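Good morning,

Both structures are done.
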Amino acid sequence: MTGPTELPPLPDTRLAALLSEAEALQPATVALRREIHRRPEQGLHLPHTQAAVRRALEGLPLEIVEGKSTSALTAVLRGAQDGPAVLLRGDMDALPLQEDTGLEFASEVDGTMHACGHDGHTAMLASAARLLAARRHELTGSVVFMFQPGEEGYHGARHMIHEGVLDAAGSRAEKAFGIHLLSHVESGLITTRPGPLMASNDTFTVQVTGKGGHGSSPHNAIDPVPAAAAMVGALQTMVTRRVSVFDPAVVSVTHIQAGTTTNIIPETAEVAGTIRTLSESTRALVKAELPKVCEAVGEAHGCRVLVDIEPGYPVTVNDPDQALRVLDLAQRVLGRAELMADPIMGAEDFSYVLQRVPGAFAFLGACPPDVDPAEAPTNHSNRVRHDEGAFPAGVAMYAAFALDALAG
């Protein structure tokens, strides 16, 4: 009798039921998401959101610690056997936008909206805690659930790291994982890549000072406006001539301000914008070169120049092994996954965690089924909608990452 020399791998019984278990938790996941969505909060202090998460975790065998300086919440689940720690993160804060989605659970807070999916991240992580608590006997080690405020520009992850989230289980977490919803990607699809995934982001402001005068006699003034205008072009030339195309940077001037009326040459002009890079070496190069370019242009126009660069988030860099592991888990648990071809130039403060712990950050598609992904309002739009049908995939992936890492 002849037959194949290689048999297909047996299914992983530890992971096979995760998606159905996550689907069973969907009513609780959706309820928490909608509660948070109705009452969005910005920044580092989110008392309503923190209280909602605490209620969602009631009755679970978790060690819960609230942040000292923020509304952070850290919960530790200890497995049946001692072992290493794994960290799972969900961010909780909203954006300064007036919601225009028409959803029945739309924001009830003027000028504040969950437009980046953080309400979904938080709800998925809370349900993952419930799912993993039910499988506590399968864990050789601990799971740290990082419910983080202040991702939208407030460096919330850094605050939590300072207060000990990475060591919350008693030893440094050995692996870390985070998920981010994307409204313009097919619902339920996990996608990520090894290495650089998202850019650093720094902001710059250039103050250009000349000498004011009458618009009819510019020769009696020192006009800062032409100097500011020349800087815009010079900065683009700097990028194309000083930065390798294989390690890119994006410098965007997004704000120019000068003058009060048409017949006055102003004394000052201001140029501001953003710097995005995919490596710390290119980030350092651009931050060093940008002031030189602006100061030289200013000097050529007879103006004084003051440059300020405000540091933002670092490059988000996935550990190669962990990123490929996430893709493999998604294939096994969800039946599909997609390797991202290129990084994106948005920024993310989970980068602070990945600087210290080998891990991965992944995107979960959440395009509503009635919307063409190519036409879907994207994250940070006041019309963005995220498909709640994608949530079980996120819950299952959080749980799969922990179970796979802490298998006995």
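Second structure follows.
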Amino acid sequence: MLHGHGVYQEEHEAFRRTVRAVVDKELRPFAADWEAREEFPRELFTRFGELGFLGLKYPEAYGGTAAGELYEAVLLEELGRCGSGGVAAGLAGQFTIATGPLHLFGTDAQKQRWLAPAIRGEKVGALGISEPDAGSDVAGLRTTARRDGDHYVVNGSKTYITNGVRADFVVLAVKTDPSRGHKGLSMLVVERGTPGFSVGRKLQKVGWRASDTAELFFEDCRVPAENLLGVENQGFSQIMGNFQWERLSLALGAVGAMDDMLETVLEHVKQRRAFGQTLAGFQVVRHKLADLYTARECARQLTYHALRLHVAGEYAVAQTSMAKKVATETCCRVADECLQLHGGAGYMMEYDIQRHWRDARLGPIGGGTSEVMNEIIAKQLGL
């Protein structure tokens, strides 16, 4: 197919072939079953740890490979092709959002305790930011952490937390100084089994069904002060810094998902016959596919542009927000059109396209809605 990415080197494409072989053999054949069970095996974390996939951008001192973010970008794209948004989200959550803050802000002792076992896939992590009354509005968080001797006493709740049911630790956004708005936020690591920390129900979702998404509750939960990440009341910038990679990861996953859908639908229109010819014989179908491939390519190149800037260390918040918005919205449109091209079969649960369609819909919501992306872009314009 039409390639010429410009962002990846040959070593990245070699890594892509490795990842694709793993995805095709170890994930894809089981995706429908895991979706039906609403859970993928926990062993996938240790398997990805063995393969070195959970520590691509982390130092060798903690079991990472220090290969860099471009390798992780390739992994994210290929996970978008695994047939289950939930499997992709659960595995990617480990290396994109749960361990990122540990790597960036943790002490050596904290990294040995949580980052190293997470890179091995032995401990599952989650990032706890969203609350019932505050998602993208991070400054509006209500979960508090009051210092009491050598502990913080945490009260509040979180929701829509990926890997929250199975998490061995949660990197939690809390208000350590509620009087200071976004200047009073901190990040604490809370371990499973800490008294006062409980996991509520596993949430039922439209898509991403193989991933576990949880409500978390904290009632006078005493967390050792040594579990504070970085400096107290510096949490807002810590959270915002991690958002850039989370948003790029969602854009990259959307690009991979579109690749998978378009390859599938291309085969379908070549084989499916109607009115004496294949669907591909109709000009309207050919032009539809020309439009979809063009839209996908626009989303891909914008995403790669933001990725290039990010990897070069530039402050690319506007381009990242644009890429996240465009790639995830285009993915929804591609999924919808591909489902339509499958006709009645597209609406049947046995066809993967309906799952892509359901999974894609989270893209413009998760990790900051498209509306929030527009606000960020407008702010960069000085509005």
